[in-house]
């Protein structure tokens, strides 16, 4: 099938990271995947979450919040009611949090909480996967800054993590679906992997369709290759930012 920009079935959209767009955050990144844009910002709370204190569980915590700004879609998305989060956003922010915690040593973090806020500026498919990929970059930069500040002795972030969407449209496997492709896809899947090639989470379903094991393996192969490429991009930006600060 013909994709926008003559993009191959197994090709990512153009990906870009702009660091430190939120000056009051410990670290932040504006991540762009095609037209999708998300700001991912990390803030430090120098205490455990209350539930850990109550249960006497040692170590820190990493948690995420996700929101879509009203102007990120057309027509305008209605702003959420203060204090209330819609079910989709709850599911996505839990996914982001799980993905980041999978690569962080909570004991090494100490009795601290790192908040990761993901705010969607423009939504054209893949906002949750872009949020995970961008958040991992912001978190990695934040960890290194905490070490330089003497807050942490060692880096609690053991490795990078990234995510991408895959799907089947018109019987063909596709990597990194834009909104139109995601809307019309027979199969839609989100894949989260570490830089060591381990799966953190796979979310997949047939949209009024079914898929075979062979088709699933093809899509997972696309996702694995795409995530390796994303992690290389993540690593280059982190090294560039942190080397400038040394």
Protein model, in words:
- The protein has one domain (15-245): GHMP Kinase, N-terminal domain (Ribosomal Protein S5, domain 2, 2-Layer Sandwich), CATH 3.30.230.
- It contains six helices and nine strands; from the N terminus they run βββαβααβαββαββα.
- It has 246 residues and is of the alpha+beta class.
- It is globular.
- The termini are far apart.
How would the blueprint of this fold be written?
Blueprint: E1 15-19, E2 27-33, E3 36-45, H1 50-55, E4 61-68, H2 87-101, H3 106-109, E5 113-122, H4 127-148, E6 161-169, E7 172-175, H5 179-184, E8 187-194, E9 199-206, H6 213-245
Parallel strand pairs: 4-5
Antiparallel strand pairs: 1-2, 2-3, 3-5, 6-7, 6-8, 8-9
Helix pairs in contact: 2-4, 4-6
The top-level CATH class is Alpha Beta
Oligomer: single chain
**Element order, helices and strands?**
EEEHEHHEHEEHEEH
Query: What is the gyration radius calculated from CA atoms?
Result: 18 Å
Gap from first CA to last CA:
48 Å
Structural class estimated from helices and strands = alpha+beta
Strand order of the largest sheet: 1-2-3-5-4
**Residues in helices, as a percent range:** 25-40%
Total count of domains: 1
Number of strands: 9
Shape category: globular
Mean pLDDT, all residues: 94
Describe the biggest sheet? 5 strands, mixed
User: CATH superfamily, called what?
Assistant: GHMP Kinase, N-terminal domain
Helical stretch tally? 6
**Any low-confidence stretches, pLDDT <50, length ≥5?**
none
Strand content: 25-35%
Task: Using the 3D structure, state the CATH architecture.
Answer: 2-Layer Sandwich
- Reported by name, the CATH topology is Ribosomal Protein S5, domain 2
């Amino acid at each position: 099938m013909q994709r926008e920009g003559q993009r191959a079935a197994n090709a990512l959209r153009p990906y870009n990271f702009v660091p430190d767009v939120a000056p009051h955050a410990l670290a932040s990144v504006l991540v762009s995947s095609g037209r999708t844009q998300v700001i991912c910002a990390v803030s430090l709370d120098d205490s455990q979450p209350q539930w850990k204190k109550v249960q006497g569980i040692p170590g820190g915590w990493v948690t995420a919040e996700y929101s879509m700004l009203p102007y990120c879609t057309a027509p305008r998305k209605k702003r959420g009611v203060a204090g209330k989060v819609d079910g989709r956003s709850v599911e996505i922010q839990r996914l982001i949090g799980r993905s980041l915690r999978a690569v962080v040593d909570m004991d090494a973090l100490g009795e601290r909480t790192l908040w990761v806020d993901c705010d969607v500026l423009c939504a054209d498919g893949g906002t949750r996967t872009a949020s995970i990929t961008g958040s991992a970059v912001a978190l990695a930069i934040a960890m290194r800054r905490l070490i330089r500040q003497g807050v942490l002795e060692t880096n609690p972030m053991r490795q990078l993590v990234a995510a991408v969407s895959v799907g089947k449209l018109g019987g063909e496997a596709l990597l990194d679906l834009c909104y139109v492709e995601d809307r019309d896809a027979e199969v839609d899947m989100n894949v989260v992997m570490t830089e060591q090639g381990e799966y953190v989470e796979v979310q997949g379903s047939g949209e009024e369709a079914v898929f075979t094991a062979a088709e699933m393996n093809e899509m997972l192969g696309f996702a694995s290759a795409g995530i390796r490429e994303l992690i290389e991009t993540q690593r280059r930006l982190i090294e560039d930012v942190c080397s400038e600060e040394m």
